Amino acid sequence: MRRALWLPVAPRASEKLLLACALWTGVTALAVSDWQVAAPKLFGVLLGLSLAYLISVDTPSSGRVHLLWLGLAIGMASLITIAALFLTEWPQRKLLPLDGLYTLLPMGPRVVDHGGRLGGIGPNQIGGSLALLVPLTLALSLNRTETRRIVCTVAALVLVYALAVLLLTQSRSAYVGAVVGQALVGWWWLRQRAWFRRHPWALMAINATVSLAVVGLLAATAFTWLAPFDSTTDTLKGRLTIWSVSTLLIGEHLYTGVGPGHFSLALKSTFPQLSASVAPYVPHAHNLILQTLLDLGLTAAVLLGTLIAVALRGLITVARAADDSSRQLLAVGLIGSLAAFFVYGLTDTIAPGARGGLPFWLVLGLAVACARPARRHRHPG
Fold first, then answer.
1. DSSP state, 181?
2. What is the spatial distance between Cα 65 and Cα 160, in angstroms, rounded to a whole number?
3. What is Dmax (Cα atoms) for the chain?
């Protein structure tokens, strides 16, 4: 197991990876043709890298790590769910008959531009952000060692609220990602309970139930992927088309990418026929890896991937061997959050510089910080 997790990069090198990725954005800027489009996305990438760097630059104390955990699991999750009710452009029926419920929700100002038309925030972006955060919130609600009972109760209420809004998004990718991330957290937590250690059959029954639930969700999702929709980006055929042309674009712009925020522009100029066959406006590549390569280029994508691998290696080590059970649970929550986001990113994505991508950078920074040994406060005398 240790050999499988070994990487030739020390955890302390995470700051260098973040700095190198930020410096490479200067090379990415060479591909920019429309700065009005690229500037907000480029700023979003640099802001995200800066926040991740500030969180992870120093070996944090247990109190600071716990405070960051509270901020993300309760504060950020609450902010996203509240904003979602007012600013989301709710979808047509996909999996659930929720059209009547959408009419009861408050309608706020539609301030987000979708390729020349004003509209609300895409429900898939809300779903992806919540899929990232709910495993972390679940872990906080289960933490009974260093967290007060009232905080655990608030975290549980925020979790229920976030899951309700996630359900409204009807984002199939987010559904699957959230189930996988929370299942990881729940599985680890149950394995630590003495009762389940004495009754392994109960844990096996829960594992079987969760596995059947995941299989059922995947089957329902696959069925809707094969069904016709008004927008063919919501079908498997449409996604395969987008992925294939995205791969061709990566081949043409391997090192610089097409430029932050330039995916739809590059798509229209290189494959104008795609608008008629798939959709008039395709905002991103609907895959996290492809979108990162297109926005940042190969070098930055490799640096970012190495940083995530280093963080995951450290989190697994903390989850297996840390003396602090609270820090172990935080590490498991972060692993679940990253796993949920990457499962979501298999068939959908939030672009690295998008506003909805801010929680990812914060989670990544906290993951790097948690992977290091905690610095205890020294008391005089």
1. H
2. 24
3. 75
Bridge partners, residue 113, by sequence: 118
What is the number of residues in the chain?
381
Q: What is the mean pLDDT of residues 301-322?
A: 90
State yes or no: pLDDT of 162 exceeds 90: yes
Confidence of residue 344 (pLDDT cuts 50, 70, 90): very high
Instruction: State the DSSP code for 190.
Output: H
Q: Answer for the pair 370, 332: CB distance below 8 angstroms, yes or no.
A: no
For the chain, where are the E strands, in sequence order?
112-114, 117-119
Q: What predicted TM-score, i.e. pTM, was given to this entire model?
A: 0.88
How confident is the model at residue 364, as a pLDDT? Answer: 95
The conformation of residue 115, written as its DSSP 8-state character, comes to T
Q: CB-side exposure of 42: number of CA atoms within 13 Å?
A: 24
Other CB atoms within 10 A of residue 41 CB:
23
pLDDT of res. 77: 95
Q: Classify 259 as helix, strand or coil.
A: coil
Give how far Cα 314 sits from Cα of 184, 252, 322, Å.
Answer: 17, 35, 11
94 burial (CB, 10 Å; 0-12 / 13-18 / 19+) is middle
Instruction: Answer whether 170's CB lies under 8 Å from 379's CB.
Output: no
Question: Do residues 311 and 365 make contact, with C-beta atoms less than 8 angstroms apart?
Answer: no
Tell me the pLDDT of the chain averaged across its residues.
82
Q: Give percent of the chain above pLDDT 70.
A: 83
Provide the β-strand partners of residue 117: 114
Contact assessment for residue 335 and residue 316, using Cβ atoms and an 8 Å cutoff: yes
- Does residue 58 carry a pLDDT above 80? no
Strands 117-119 and 112-114, bridge-based pairing: antiparallel
Phi, psi of 112 (to 5 degrees): -100, 130
